[in-house]
Amino acid sequence: MSPPQFDDQLVYLLSNLRHIQQHVPSVAEPKGHQKKHLNLLDGIALLLVTGDKGDVAAVSFVHTSTSIEFFYAKNRPCTPQETAYIQKLLEMTRSFKTSESGMWVGRVLKLVIQTCVKKVRGRMRKITNELKKIGFSSSLRLEDLNNLHIWRETNCKGEIVEAYRRTFPSQKPEEGVSDRDILFRYFRGLFEVSGPEGRIEGAKAAVFLSRYIGIALRTDPIIDNAAIVRRIQKLGDYAGAVQTLVKMLLDPAIYGFRHAIKFTEVKPAGQSIHLMPKNFLKVLNDYAIRRGKPQVQWKDLCHSFPSLNSRVEPGDGDMKVTTSTHCECTIATYLLNSTAGRPTAFEIGVSKRCCWLCKKYLSVLVEPDDSSILAPSSSFIVSGYQGKIHSGWHPPHWPPRAFSRMVGLVEGEIEEILGSLTRTNRSDSFPRSPISEDSDIEVGGIENSWF
Ligand SMILES: [Zn+2]
Protein backbone atom coordinates (compact mmCIF):
# COMPACT_ATOMS: atom_id res chain seq x y z
CA MET A 1 0.00 0.00 0.00
CA SER A 2 1.36 3.43 -0.87
CA PRO A 3 1.78 5.88 2.00
CA PRO A 4 -1.11 8.31 2.49
CA GLN A 5 -0.89 11.60 0.63
CA PHE A 6 -1.95 14.85 2.23
CA ASP A 7 -4.12 16.71 -0.26
CA ASP A 8 -3.37 20.42 0.20
CA GLN A 9 -6.21 21.29 -2.17
CA LEU A 10 -8.75 19.83 0.27
CA VAL A 11 -7.54 22.15 3.04
CA TYR A 12 -7.74 25.04 0.59
CA LEU A 13 -11.33 23.99 -0.19
CA LEU A 14 -12.20 23.74 3.51
CA SER A 15 -10.74 27.16 4.19
CA ASN A 16 -13.04 28.59 1.53
CA LEU A 17 -16.17 26.81 2.73
CA ARG A 18 -15.60 26.93 6.45
CA HIS A 19 -13.20 29.76 6.89
CA ILE A 20 -14.31 29.61 10.48
CA GLN A 21 -15.59 26.42 12.04
CA GLN A 22 -18.77 26.55 14.05
CA HIS A 23 -17.19 25.55 17.29
CA VAL A 24 -14.35 27.59 18.62
CA PRO A 25 -12.99 25.52 21.46
CA SER A 26 -12.35 27.29 24.68
CA VAL A 27 -9.51 26.29 26.94
CA ALA A 28 -9.64 25.73 30.64
CA GLU A 29 -7.84 28.54 32.41
CA PRO A 30 -4.40 27.09 33.26
CA LYS A 31 -3.39 27.23 36.88
CA GLY A 32 -0.27 27.43 39.03
CA HIS A 33 3.00 26.71 37.31
CA GLN A 34 1.33 26.01 34.01
CA LYS A 35 -0.13 29.50 33.92
CA LYS A 36 3.21 31.10 34.78
CA HIS A 37 5.03 29.07 32.17
CA LEU A 38 2.48 29.91 29.49
CA ASN A 39 2.65 33.63 30.34
CA LEU A 40 6.41 33.49 29.96
CA LEU A 41 6.31 31.45 26.75
CA ASP A 42 3.54 33.54 25.17
CA GLY A 43 5.58 36.62 26.04
CA ILE A 44 8.74 35.25 24.41
CA ALA A 45 6.71 34.24 21.34
CA LEU A 46 5.48 37.84 21.04
CA LEU A 47 9.07 39.15 21.25
CA LEU A 48 10.07 36.85 18.37
CA VAL A 49 7.51 38.25 15.94
CA THR A 50 9.55 40.78 14.00
CA GLY A 51 7.45 41.02 10.86
CA ASP A 52 3.99 42.43 10.48
CA LYS A 53 1.01 40.34 9.38
CA GLY A 54 1.60 36.63 8.86
CA ASP A 55 4.66 36.38 11.08
CA VAL A 56 4.00 34.03 14.00
CA ALA A 57 6.13 32.18 16.54
CA ALA A 58 5.81 29.29 18.99
CA VAL A 59 8.10 28.63 21.97
CA SER A 60 8.52 25.85 24.48
CA PHE A 61 11.22 24.91 26.94
CA VAL A 62 12.88 21.95 28.57
CA HIS A 63 14.12 22.53 32.10
CA THR A 64 16.76 20.11 33.40
CA SER A 65 18.86 20.24 36.54
CA THR A 66 21.65 21.98 34.65
CA SER A 67 20.01 24.11 31.97
CA ILE A 68 16.89 25.72 30.59
CA GLU A 69 16.61 25.32 26.87
CA PHE A 70 14.01 27.31 24.98
CA PHE A 71 12.93 25.97 21.59
CA TYR A 72 11.30 28.29 19.11
CA ALA A 73 9.95 28.02 15.60
CA LYS A 74 8.24 30.13 13.00
CA ASN A 75 6.24 29.03 9.96
CA ARG A 76 9.39 29.79 7.95
CA PRO A 77 13.06 29.61 8.92
CA CYS A 78 14.36 32.67 10.79
CA THR A 79 16.30 35.21 8.75
CA PRO A 80 19.96 35.94 9.68
CA GLN A 81 18.78 39.29 11.14
CA GLU A 82 16.25 37.51 13.34
CA THR A 83 18.85 34.99 14.49
CA ALA A 84 21.22 37.84 15.40
CA TYR A 85 18.42 39.60 17.32
CA ILE A 86 17.58 36.43 19.28
CA GLN A 87 21.28 35.90 20.01
CA LYS A 88 21.44 39.44 21.40
CA LEU A 89 18.37 38.81 23.57
CA LEU A 90 20.07 35.67 24.85
CA GLU A 91 23.30 37.53 25.66
CA MET A 92 21.32 40.16 27.56
CA THR A 93 19.49 37.40 29.45
CA ARG A 94 22.74 35.73 30.42
CA SER A 95 24.30 38.99 31.60
CA PHE A 96 21.28 39.97 33.71
CA LYS A 97 22.11 41.42 37.14
CA THR A 98 19.55 41.60 39.94
CA SER A 99 20.73 45.06 40.94
CA GLU A 100 20.07 46.46 37.47
CA SER A 101 16.73 44.88 36.69
CA GLY A 102 14.94 48.19 36.02
CA MET A 103 17.56 49.35 33.54
CA TRP A 104 17.69 45.90 32.01
CA VAL A 105 13.97 46.07 31.19
CA GLY A 106 14.49 49.44 29.49
CA ARG A 107 17.43 48.19 27.41
CA VAL A 108 15.71 44.99 26.32
CA LEU A 109 12.47 46.80 25.50
CA LYS A 110 14.39 49.25 23.32
CA LEU A 111 15.97 46.41 21.36
CA VAL A 112 12.58 44.68 21.05
CA ILE A 113 10.83 47.82 19.79
CA GLN A 114 13.62 48.55 17.31
CA THR A 115 13.34 45.03 15.93
CA CYS A 116 9.59 44.52 16.09
CA VAL A 117 8.89 48.10 15.07
CA LYS A 118 6.37 47.21 12.34
CA LYS A 119 4.12 45.30 14.68
CA VAL A 120 4.56 47.80 17.52
CA ARG A 121 3.59 50.67 15.24
CA GLY A 122 0.71 48.55 13.95
CA ARG A 123 -0.59 48.19 17.51
CA MET A 124 -0.20 51.93 18.11
CA ARG A 125 -2.12 52.72 14.95
CA LYS A 126 -4.91 50.44 16.07
CA ILE A 127 -5.32 52.49 19.26
CA THR A 128 -5.26 55.78 17.37
CA ASN A 129 -7.81 54.40 14.89
CA GLU A 130 -10.12 53.46 17.74
CA LEU A 131 -9.60 56.92 19.22
CA LYS A 132 -10.51 58.54 15.90
CA LYS A 133 -13.75 56.58 15.90
CA ILE A 134 -14.79 58.20 19.17
CA GLY A 135 -13.82 61.65 17.93
CA PHE A 136 -10.41 62.03 19.52
CA SER A 137 -7.80 63.75 17.41
CA SER A 138 -4.41 65.19 18.19
CA SER A 139 -5.90 68.71 18.00
CA LEU A 140 -8.57 67.94 20.62
CA ARG A 141 -8.47 69.93 23.85
CA LEU A 142 -8.84 68.43 27.30
CA GLU A 143 -12.27 70.03 27.73
CA ASP A 144 -13.44 68.21 24.61
CA LEU A 145 -12.07 64.92 25.87
CA ASN A 146 -14.32 65.38 28.89
CA ASN A 147 -17.30 65.58 26.54
CA LEU A 148 -16.54 62.30 24.75
CA HIS A 149 -18.81 59.42 25.70
CA ILE A 150 -16.11 57.07 26.86
CA TRP A 151 -16.17 57.68 30.56
CA ARG A 152 -17.67 55.28 33.00
CA GLU A 153 -18.85 56.33 36.42
CA THR A 154 -16.45 54.84 38.86
CA ASN A 155 -15.62 55.23 42.49
CA CYS A 156 -11.94 54.61 41.95
CA LYS A 157 -9.84 57.65 41.32
CA GLY A 158 -6.16 58.03 40.71
CA GLU A 159 -5.58 54.61 39.10
CA ILE A 160 -4.15 56.11 35.93
CA VAL A 161 -2.10 58.68 37.82
CA GLU A 162 -0.63 55.74 39.72
CA ALA A 163 0.10 53.99 36.41
CA TYR A 164 1.94 57.12 35.29
CA ARG A 165 4.00 57.12 38.50
CA ARG A 166 4.99 53.52 37.97
CA THR A 167 6.02 54.20 34.39
CA PHE A 168 8.11 57.26 35.17
CA PRO A 169 9.18 56.82 38.77
CA SER A 170 11.66 59.71 38.61
CA GLN A 171 9.07 62.22 37.36
CA LYS A 172 6.34 63.22 39.77
CA PRO A 173 3.07 64.23 38.14
CA GLU A 174 2.21 67.74 39.26
CA GLU A 175 -0.31 68.36 42.05
CA GLY A 176 -3.96 67.86 41.24
CA VAL A 177 -3.39 66.02 37.97
CA SER A 178 -6.34 63.72 37.22
CA ASP A 179 -6.74 60.35 35.50
CA ARG A 180 -8.27 62.12 32.51
CA ASP A 181 -5.34 64.53 32.26
CA ILE A 182 -2.93 61.61 32.04
CA LEU A 183 -5.08 59.72 29.53
CA PHE A 184 -5.38 62.88 27.47
CA ARG A 185 -1.58 63.24 27.29
CA TYR A 186 -1.18 59.54 26.61
CA PHE A 187 -3.71 59.55 23.74
CA ARG A 188 -2.13 62.64 22.23
CA GLY A 189 1.34 61.17 22.61
CA LEU A 190 0.24 58.08 20.73
CA PHE A 191 -0.82 60.20 17.77
CA GLU A 192 2.66 61.69 17.75
CA VAL A 193 4.65 58.47 17.97
CA SER A 194 2.48 56.09 15.93
CA GLY A 195 3.55 57.64 12.62
CA PRO A 196 6.64 56.54 10.67
CA GLU A 197 8.64 59.47 12.08
CA GLY A 198 7.91 58.57 15.69
CA ARG A 199 11.04 57.97 17.76
CA ILE A 200 11.87 54.66 19.40
CA GLU A 201 12.19 56.35 22.80
CA GLY A 202 8.68 57.76 22.41
CA ALA A 203 7.37 54.35 21.42
CA LYS A 204 9.11 52.81 24.45
CA ALA A 205 7.42 55.28 26.79
CA ALA A 206 4.06 54.60 25.13
CA VAL A 207 4.52 50.84 25.52
CA PHE A 208 5.44 51.16 29.22
CA LEU A 209 2.56 53.49 29.96
CA SER A 210 0.19 51.20 28.05
CA ARG A 211 1.26 48.32 30.25
CA TYR A 212 0.39 50.08 33.49
CA ILE A 213 -2.70 51.83 32.17
CA GLY A 214 -3.82 48.47 30.78
CA ILE A 215 -3.45 46.87 34.22
CA ALA A 216 -5.34 49.75 35.86
CA LEU A 217 -8.15 49.41 33.33
CA ARG A 218 -8.37 45.69 34.01
CA THR A 219 -9.32 46.27 37.62
CA ASP A 220 -11.23 49.52 37.16
CA PRO A 221 -12.70 50.08 33.69
CA ILE A 222 -12.66 53.87 33.72
CA ILE A 223 -13.04 53.92 29.95
CA ASP A 224 -16.33 52.54 28.73
CA ASN A 225 -14.98 51.28 25.42
CA ALA A 226 -13.80 47.68 25.35
CA ALA A 227 -12.05 48.03 21.99
CA ILE A 228 -9.80 50.86 23.19
CA VAL A 229 -9.04 49.10 26.47
CA ARG A 230 -8.07 45.92 24.66
CA ARG A 231 -5.85 47.79 22.19
CA ILE A 232 -4.05 49.57 25.03
CA GLN A 233 -3.45 46.27 26.81
CA LYS A 234 -2.06 44.69 23.65
CA LEU A 235 0.45 47.48 23.13
CA GLY A 236 1.45 47.08 26.78
CA ASP A 237 2.03 43.35 26.22
CA TYR A 238 5.55 44.13 24.94
CA ALA A 239 6.49 45.57 28.32
CA GLY A 240 4.59 42.74 30.03
CA ALA A 241 6.63 40.15 28.14
CA VAL A 242 9.96 41.74 29.13
CA GLN A 243 8.83 42.14 32.74
CA THR A 244 7.84 38.49 32.79
CA LEU A 245 11.35 37.58 31.64
CA VAL A 246 12.73 39.62 34.54
CA LYS A 247 10.44 37.83 36.98
CA MET A 248 11.85 34.56 35.72
CA LEU A 249 15.46 35.78 36.04
CA LEU A 250 14.87 37.09 39.56
CA ASP A 251 13.84 33.62 40.71
CA PRO A 252 16.92 32.38 42.62
CA ALA A 253 16.53 28.94 41.02
CA ILE A 254 16.95 30.49 37.57
CA TYR A 255 19.32 33.32 38.42
CA GLY A 256 21.99 30.85 39.55
CA PHE A 257 22.32 29.33 36.14
CA ARG A 258 21.20 32.08 33.79
CA HIS A 259 24.44 31.43 31.89
CA ALA A 260 23.08 27.98 31.03
CA ILE A 261 19.96 29.35 29.32
CA LYS A 262 19.81 28.42 25.64
CA PHE A 263 17.61 29.48 22.75
CA THR A 264 17.43 26.96 19.92
CA GLU A 265 15.58 27.34 16.66
CA VAL A 266 13.62 24.34 15.43
CA LYS A 267 13.64 24.64 11.65
CA PRO A 268 10.23 24.09 10.10
CA ALA A 269 9.64 21.88 7.08
CA GLY A 270 10.01 23.92 3.90
CA GLN A 271 7.19 26.08 2.63
CA SER A 272 5.98 25.43 -0.88
CA ILE A 273 3.85 27.27 -3.37
CA HIS A 274 0.95 25.43 -4.99
CA LEU A 275 -1.40 26.46 -7.74
CA MET A 276 -5.00 25.96 -6.66
CA PRO A 277 -8.07 26.47 -8.86
CA LYS A 278 -9.74 29.83 -8.12
CA ASN A 279 -13.01 27.98 -8.35
CA PHE A 280 -12.75 25.77 -5.29
CA LEU A 281 -15.92 23.92 -6.39
CA LYS A 282 -13.62 22.20 -8.87
CA VAL A 283 -11.61 20.72 -5.98
CA LEU A 284 -14.81 19.33 -4.47
CA ASN A 285 -16.00 17.84 -7.76
CA ASP A 286 -12.58 16.33 -8.56
CA TYR A 287 -12.76 14.64 -5.16
CA ALA A 288 -16.36 13.48 -5.84
CA ILE A 289 -15.30 11.99 -9.19
CA ARG A 290 -12.37 10.12 -7.60
CA ARG A 291 -14.74 8.66 -5.00
CA GLY A 292 -17.49 7.83 -7.54
CA LYS A 293 -19.91 10.30 -6.01
CA PRO A 294 -22.30 12.72 -7.73
CA GLN A 295 -20.94 16.15 -8.55
CA VAL A 296 -22.42 19.32 -7.10
CA GLN A 297 -23.35 22.73 -8.50
CA TRP A 298 -22.44 26.18 -7.17
CA LYS A 299 -26.07 26.75 -6.12
CA ASP A 300 -25.97 23.57 -3.99
CA LEU A 301 -22.90 24.90 -2.27
CA CYS A 302 -24.58 28.27 -1.61
CA HIS A 303 -27.56 26.46 -0.15
CA SER A 304 -25.43 24.72 2.43
CA PHE A 305 -23.04 27.61 3.00
CA PRO A 306 -25.21 30.75 3.14
CA SER A 307 -22.14 32.93 3.46
CA LEU A 308 -21.37 32.14 -0.20
CA ASN A 309 -24.66 33.66 -1.36
CA SER A 310 -23.11 37.05 -1.77
CA ARG A 311 -20.38 35.66 -4.05
CA VAL A 312 -20.52 34.81 -7.72
CA GLU A 313 -19.00 31.52 -8.74
CA PRO A 314 -15.24 32.11 -9.16
CA GLY A 315 -13.99 31.90 -12.74
CA ASP A 316 -11.33 29.67 -14.24
CA GLY A 317 -7.66 30.06 -13.53
CA ASP A 318 -5.37 29.35 -10.63
CA MET A 319 -4.14 31.15 -7.59
CA LYS A 320 -0.96 30.69 -5.60
CA VAL A 321 -1.26 29.25 -2.12
CA THR A 322 1.82 28.91 0.12
CA THR A 323 1.67 25.83 2.29
CA SER A 324 3.63 25.57 5.52
CA THR A 325 3.85 23.65 8.75
CA HIS A 326 2.51 25.88 11.49
CA CYS A 327 5.04 26.72 14.18
CA GLU A 328 3.17 25.06 17.08
CA CYS A 329 3.07 21.76 15.16
CA THR A 330 6.81 22.03 14.44
CA ILE A 331 7.53 22.57 18.14
CA ALA A 332 5.13 19.84 19.25
CA THR A 333 6.65 17.13 17.07
CA TYR A 334 10.14 18.25 18.08
CA LEU A 335 9.27 17.91 21.78
CA LEU A 336 7.71 14.54 21.17
CA ASN A 337 10.76 13.31 19.32
CA SER A 338 13.34 14.64 21.75
CA THR A 339 11.85 14.34 25.21
CA ALA A 340 12.70 11.21 27.07
CA GLY A 341 10.32 9.83 29.66
CA ARG A 342 6.60 10.23 29.88
CA PRO A 343 5.73 13.89 30.40
CA THR A 344 2.07 14.66 30.93
CA ALA A 345 2.04 18.25 29.80
CA PHE A 346 3.95 20.05 27.11
CA GLU A 347 3.47 23.82 27.36
CA ILE A 348 3.77 25.78 24.12
CA GLY A 349 3.65 29.56 23.99
CA VAL A 350 2.20 31.07 20.82
CA SER A 351 1.96 34.57 19.42
CA LYS A 352 -1.43 33.81 17.86
CA ARG A 353 -4.16 31.48 19.02
CA CYS A 354 -3.88 28.02 17.46
CA CYS A 355 -5.94 27.49 14.32
CA TRP A 356 -8.55 24.75 13.98
CA LEU A 357 -6.27 22.25 12.25
CA CYS A 358 -3.38 22.85 14.68
CA LYS A 359 -5.79 22.17 17.54
CA LYS A 360 -6.75 18.88 15.90
CA TYR A 361 -3.13 18.03 15.23
CA LEU A 362 -2.02 18.68 18.83
CA SER A 363 -4.73 16.34 20.11
CA VAL A 364 -3.96 13.67 17.48
CA LEU A 365 -0.29 13.69 18.55
CA VAL A 366 -1.11 12.55 22.07
CA GLU A 367 -3.67 9.90 21.14
CA PRO A 368 -2.60 6.68 22.82
CA ASP A 369 -1.29 3.94 20.55
CA ASP A 370 0.72 0.77 21.00
CA SER A 371 4.12 2.36 20.54
CA SER A 372 3.34 5.47 22.55
CA ILE A 373 5.98 6.64 24.98
CA LEU A 374 3.58 9.17 26.43
CA ALA A 375 1.72 9.09 29.69
CA PRO A 376 -1.92 8.19 29.06
CA SER A 377 -3.15 11.66 29.95
CA SER A 378 -0.48 13.60 28.03
CA SER A 379 -1.49 16.84 26.39
CA PHE A 380 -0.14 19.93 24.72
CA ILE A 381 -1.13 23.07 26.57
CA VAL A 382 -1.55 26.41 24.79
CA SER A 383 -3.25 29.62 25.92
CA GLY A 384 -5.96 29.74 23.31
CA TYR A 385 -7.54 28.52 20.13
CA GLN A 386 -9.42 30.14 17.28
CA GLY A 387 -11.73 28.56 14.76
CA LYS A 388 -9.97 29.59 11.57
CA ILE A 389 -8.97 27.19 8.83
CA HIS A 390 -5.93 28.45 6.93
CA SER A 391 -5.68 27.61 3.24
CA GLY A 392 -2.02 26.54 3.37
CA TRP A 393 -2.03 24.35 6.49
CA HIS A 394 0.20 21.29 6.07
CA PRO A 395 1.02 18.66 8.74
CA PRO A 396 4.56 17.62 9.74
CA HIS A 397 5.63 14.36 8.09
CA TRP A 398 6.72 12.87 11.38
CA PRO A 399 5.23 10.97 13.17
CA PRO A 400 3.57 9.05 10.32
CA ARG A 401 0.60 7.98 12.44
CA ALA A 402 -0.40 11.59 13.14
CA PHE A 403 0.18 12.44 9.47
CA SER A 404 -2.24 9.70 8.36
CA ARG A 405 -4.76 10.75 10.99
CA MET A 406 -4.77 14.28 9.54
CA VAL A 407 -5.21 12.91 6.00
CA GLY A 408 -8.24 10.99 7.30
CA LEU A 409 -9.57 13.92 9.29
CA VAL A 410 -9.52 16.34 6.35
CA GLU A 411 -11.12 13.75 4.05
CA GLY A 412 -13.76 13.09 6.71
CA GLU A 413 -14.67 16.79 6.70
CA ILE A 414 -15.00 16.77 2.89
CA GLU A 415 -17.09 13.57 3.03
CA GLU A 416 -19.41 15.21 5.54
CA ILE A 417 -19.84 18.25 3.32
CA LEU A 418 -20.43 16.13 0.20
CA GLY A 419 -22.90 13.95 2.09
CA SER A 420 -24.98 16.89 3.25
CA LEU A 421 -24.91 18.48 -0.23
CA THR A 422 -26.18 15.42 -2.02
CA ARG A 423 -28.81 14.37 0.51
CA THR A 424 -32.25 14.74 -1.03
CA ASN A 425 -33.86 16.99 1.53
CA ARG A 426 -30.95 19.44 1.59
CA SER A 427 -31.96 20.79 4.91
CA ASP A 428 -28.48 20.97 6.33
CA SER A 429 -26.56 24.11 6.28
CA PHE A 430 -23.26 25.01 7.83
CA PRO A 431 -23.66 28.33 9.56
CA ARG A 432 -20.80 30.64 10.25
CA SER A 433 -20.49 31.79 13.74
CA PRO A 434 -19.38 35.34 14.30
CA ILE A 435 -16.08 35.25 16.13
CA SER A 436 -13.39 37.81 16.52
CA GLU A 437 -10.93 37.94 13.65
CA ASP A 438 -8.32 39.18 16.06
CA SER A 439 -6.37 36.15 17.17
CA ASP A 440 -3.32 37.64 18.90
CA ILE A 441 -2.47 36.06 22.20
CA GLU A 442 -2.52 38.40 25.18
CA VAL A 443 0.31 38.21 27.65
CA GLY A 444 -0.93 37.50 31.15
CA GLY A 445 -0.17 39.11 34.47
CA ILE A 446 3.09 39.22 36.35
CA GLU A 447 3.65 36.32 38.68
CA ASN A 448 6.17 35.89 41.42
CA SER A 449 8.07 32.64 41.63
CA TRP A 450 8.79 30.67 38.53
CA PHE A 451 9.61 27.02 38.35
ZN1 LIG B 1 -2.21 26.62 12.88
From TrEMBL:
It comes from the Eukaryota. It holds the Pfam family OTT_1508_deam. Residues 425-451 are annotated as: Disordered. This is Uncharacterized protein. It comes from Glutinoglossum americanum. The lineage of its organism: Eukaryota, Fungi, Dikarya, Ascomycota, Pezizomycotina.
